Amino acid sequence: MNEAERQQWTFAIMALAAAYRVELSDPSLEAYWLATEDLPLERVQKAVKRAIREGGKFMPTPSDLRAMSGASIRPYHEPWKEPEWMLEQRPNWPQLTEAKKP
């Protein structure tokens, strides 16, 4: 995001906080930024609008807002999958163990 978009992003998050009557600290604002910095501004704005319109009891967390934007989130409990390049570089263990046998 460029500087103008960052200002629009800040305005959207502050509007969300105002709608929920929450005063955001600088670290809280930074947490929302870290959760959404890779998303297009339009998606963040749509997520903010959705959060305000659906109006839960509490302000959405940064990860809730990211989910509302439609961004994919890998749950922390999802098993880690090795990337293809790692699988290609893995040694062939049966060959190595067979070579060590007397």
Question: Would you write up a description of this structure?
Answer:
- There is one protein chain.
- With 102 residues, this protein is an all-alpha fold.
- The protein has one domain (3-76).
- 62% of the residues lie in helices and 0% in strands.
- The chain has helices spanning 3-19, 26-36, 41-54, 62-68, 84-89, 93-100.
- Helix 1 packs parallel to helix 3, helix 2 (26-36) packs parallel to helix 4 and helix 3 packs across helix 4 (62-68).
- It is elongated, with a radius of gyration of 22 Å.
- The model has no long low-confidence stretch (mean pLDDT 81).
Class from helix and strand fractions: mainly alpha
The total strand number stands at 0
Judging from the principal axes of the Cα atoms, what is the shape?
elongated
- SSE ordering: HHHHHH
Tell me what portion of residues adopts beta-strand conformation.
under 5%
For the structure shown, list the relevant keywords.
single chain, 102 residues, mainly alpha, 6 helices, 0% strand, elongated
Secondary-structure topology with pairs:
Blueprint: H1 3-19, H2 26-36, H3 41-54, H4 62-68, H5 84-89, H6 93-100
Quick structural overview:
By secondary structure, the protein is mainly alpha-helical. The protein has 6 helices and no strands. The longest helix is centred in the first third of the chain and has 17 residues, at 3-19.
